[in-house]
Design brief:
CATH architecture of the largest domain: Sandwich
Helix content: 10-25%
CATH topology of the largest domain: Jelly Rolls
Number of helices: 3
Number of strands: 24
Structural class: alpha+beta
Distance between the termini: 83 Å
Number of domains: 3
Radius of gyration: 28 Å
Shape: elongated
CATH class of the largest domain: Mainly Beta
Order of helices and strands: HHHEEEEEEEEEEEEEEEEEEEEEEEE
Largest sheet: 10 strands, mixed
Length: 356
Amino acid sequence: MNAIARTRSHRSAFTLIEMIASLAIMSLAFGAMLSSSLLLTRVSDIDGVGGEAGRLAHITTDLAEDLKTALAIDATASSVELTVPDRDGDGADEVLLYAWSETDGDPLTLSYNGATAVPVTGPLTAFNIGFEVESPPPDSEQLVGGHNPSSIASPGTVRVDDRNRHGQQFLPSRPLVAFGWKPTRVRMKCQNQSGTTSVLDNLFTSINTADRNGTPTAVTHTFNTLNPRDLPDTMAWYEADYPAAAPVIAAGQEVALVITTLSLLVEVDLQVDTGADAPDGYAAGNAFGYTADTAKSLIYEVYGIIYGGSFEYSRRALIGLQPKGSDIAPVHFGVNTLNEPKLSGSPTILSTRERS
């Protein structure tokens, strides 16, 4: 009986490995709960100990951390939209919008990923934000247009052959292109499906004028000639240069990337985003006229030399908040934006230096 009892006692106890595994699982569960709690805290009542002064200290700490890690900034004199790295584990970046109405007595509000804005401070008489920035060197190459989301929920393909071609309209923004731009290269996700081809069987990518509706036209600014045998055999990025003699395209002119072939033997699949929010692509059969290919945006990037560009990168942000009433001191602080995010909108620029 004693032997049996000892055996049962031994079997009912936890081994060291089981205890370690249990602790690891509990740690993961606690971490997930803590992350959810922190996320809710961003949009909850945070008066707590210290009243309004404590609330102000809390939100300035959050805002400083958000600016420090921002990947992109869209700002005005009294609002700032920050794209920050994924915080909820879904693989997508988060978008935080801090805004003040510029009305005396209104609070600073925060919207998280487009949700309803909630107040995160008490009444303010002022909120302002300015930036120390770097500008790109004169006549530098920049990303001019493209569609390359971090994840594609609904990927698909379109076929380019002697009967079908595809186009994608884009408009380089005026803050980026102040005078004009010259196409330098294109990147696209594609896969060669051709069989045996000769040196005469080519694929072409071109930058064409788009009409007022965004539809590609037959007017070509520049093009390059690609050998299908150089394209990847599995869906992957492929890059091609445009000729150095490509013309300068005026700022504000809508253009389209067009991929086409005249060869009976060339067949190439292009990666597209078929999600509901994806921009329309444009497809054409034997006739040149294009029609919108609803929610089939190419996965692509077009680069060019920017002439007179004014795009800027944030190096440091300086923020000021003035609570309403004399019992709480105004808050002023500066934050180094570590990722040097691109700055857009109509921000207040405090100083500028040329980007090396």
